[in-house]
Structure formats: C-alpha cells, structure tokens
Amino acid sequence: MTPQFVRPARLPPGSRVAALSLSSGFVTEVMGRYQAGVRQVADEFGWEIVAAPNALRGETFLYDHPQVRADDLHWALEHPEMDGLLSIIGGDDSVRLLPFLNLNTIRANPKPFLGFSDGTVTLLAFLRAGVMAYHGPALLTDLAENGGMHPLTVQGIRRALVDQPQPFDLSPAPEWTEHSSDWEDESLQEVRRPFQPGDGWQWLQGSAPAQGHLMGGCLEVLDMLNGTPGWPAPELWRGAVLALETSEDVPTPGQVGYWLRNYAAQGILTHAAGLLLARPKRYTPEMVRELYVWVRRVLREGGREDLPVVANVDFGHTSPQLTLPFGAQVRLDPAAGRITVLP
C-alpha cells in the first residue's frame, strides 16, 4: 500500500514563518547573515520571519538543552499565528531531539517545514507523522545568498510552497557553486559568490518510467538515525523515490556504497521506485566516477539494475538547490530525462 501524507497549506505572501534552531545555535555568531535572510525572504516571498522563543539563545545553551529545541518546534506547530516552519541552519546532533519530539503534535498541526542537512531528522519525523515536509534551503544558506537569492532557488520554493499545487518538472541548475564565503564579514553580503556553468544530471541506469513518493535526506544524518526510534518503518520506505545527499564531511565513495549496502540489506533498495543522488560536495572528478561505480555495484548486487537512478541533481549541500516536497509523488522518465513532481 502506498503511504499517504497530508499536504500542509501553502505559504502565500503575508504568511508568518517561524525560524527554528533545531541543530546548531551558531546563528548568534552571524546575526548580519540572519537579518539578510529575513530581508530577502520578505522581499521574494512576502513572508514574515519570526524567531522561535529559543532560536537565538546561543550555541552553548541550545547544545546543552535539546528539549528546548524540540519545544520550539512544537510551539511553532501549535501557535495559531505561525503558518510555517523554517530551519535556520543545520548541525550534527538533531538526533538528540528524538526523545522529545511529539509526532501527534505534528500530525494534529500540519504546517510546512523547510530544511535540509541535519534537518533530515525533522523531515523524517514529519513523514513518520503522515505529513509532507520540504527538503530545501535553510535561512542562513541559499535564502541569505550573497547578492540575493538565485532564481532557481526562488522558483523551487515558489513551486513547492507558494503556488497552487500543479505538476512541475525539476530542472538542472544553469550554474552552481560550493564556494564558501565568510558569513561574519557583512561587507561581503552584496558580493556574489563565483559560480561555474551547470554540468547537468547523469542518468546512471534504468530505462522504464517509475513513480513513487519522495523521501530521504543527508546520508550522514540517516546513518545516525539508523536503528533509532526516528528510523522510518519499512512500509514508509516501500515504493519510495529516494533522494540522498552528502555533506561537507565528504564521505568516501566507498562509505556511500557501504550505506547503500545497508539499505539493500534492509530491503529499502529492493522495494524502491527510483533514486536521486545529489551533487556530492567537495568531490573530485575521480571521486565522482568512483561513486557511480559503487552505486551501480550495490544495485547489481541487490538485483536492481532496473532501478532508475539520476545523479548530480541540484539539492542538498550545493547552491542553488532545489526544494523537494518529501511525501509528494514524483515521476522519473529516463528516456525523456525528466523528473516531474506531481500535485
């Protein structure tokens, strides 16, 4: 049976969106960057960003008190004047929120949540609660982009979160970057980062069209979740199009292959409908080629040489990044080279 997910209400201009520090409290070190993101979100989407009660209490306090981070999530869901939820930045310890997360609160108050990286913990909590969630930019990343948001980022958020639901095709970024700028130097806020021409997607295997619900996230965070109560039940994985990305930790291609072997052993790859692999951050061309060898190898071992796989997709730890509605149906058409998100 295909899992069913509640689609939260859209976020038109005038919406109030809670900014959440569910992972690192680093934002207080770069408040100029935070304010830039708040301004750019208001300019592009007409949203009012409201900091959750504990979101700006500093890195040490939030590290020491994971429960208050979960409390902020519940506050944003239950507060009648909050229309949506936005991750300020990722980190590496959202898994510590698991004892405090209340899936009933998510289920009873379905609102759109947008985030990525360590936000994977929260994205999957929403799916476990039966509510769609949105894998996309955090406030301090592409939403506070130097010189203004990239048009691909704006288009992705509008299609997923603002416009009325209708089918739309994902598109390769015409240009991309992983250049790091100094967020503490506010003089750089209007200095556009260097971008390089887009290199397109790579369809690694599969010829027949396939369709399933989107889910996945950051592989390093998924590894922390694996075996915990936050790991989705087998029926939630069944029939999914997996969207998987890697972080600035730069796991080796072999490590990615080992994680995929785990998914094969669990039956996740056996019952998957398709696989989207993000552009891997800080990989050399040689590492990319080795990664593709590992992916094909693991799928061959699991008897899934039929599985449609498209790599180098613009989501996760790359800029600009697409917004992927987790829980929505997506159709892969290898022959046409299309990825279509369905309403």
By CATH's scheme, which homologous superfamily of the largest domain applies?
Answer: LD-carboxypeptidase A C-terminal domain-like
Tally of structural domains:
2
Overall helicity? 25-40%
Average pLDDT: 97
Low-confidence stretches: none
* Main CATH class of the largest domain: Alpha Beta
Number of strands: 16
Q: What is the CATH fold-level name of the largest domain? A: Glucose Oxidase, domain 1
User: What is the C-alpha radius of gyration, as a whole number of Å?
Assistant: 19 Å
- Number of helical regions: 10
Going by helix content, strand content and strand pairing, the class is alpha/beta
Question: Sheet bearing the most strands, described?
Answer: 8 strands, mixed
- How are the strands of the biggest sheet laid out side by side? 6-16-15-10-11-12-13-9
End-to-end Cα distance: 19 Å
Q: What's the architecture of the largest domain in CATH terms?
A: 3-Layer(bba) Sandwich
**Shape label:** globular
Order of helices and strands: EHEHHEHEHEHEEEEEHHEHEHEEEE
Please explain how this structure is put together.
The protein has 343 residues and is α/β, with parallel strands linked by helices. Helices cover 30% and strands 19% of the residues. It has ten helices and 16 strands. The chain has helices at residues 31-45, 59-64, 66-78, 103-108, 120-128, 151-162, 219-225, 234-237, 253-266, 285-301, and strands spanning 16-20, 48-51, 84-87, 113-115, 133-135, 168-169, 175-176, 196-197, 202-205, 210-218, 240-245, 274-278, 309-313, 324-326, 329-333, 338-341. β12, α10 (285-301) and β13 (309-313) form a beta-alpha-beta unit. α9 runs parallel beside α10 (285-301). The two termini are 19 Å apart. The model has no long low-confidence stretch (mean pLDDT 97).
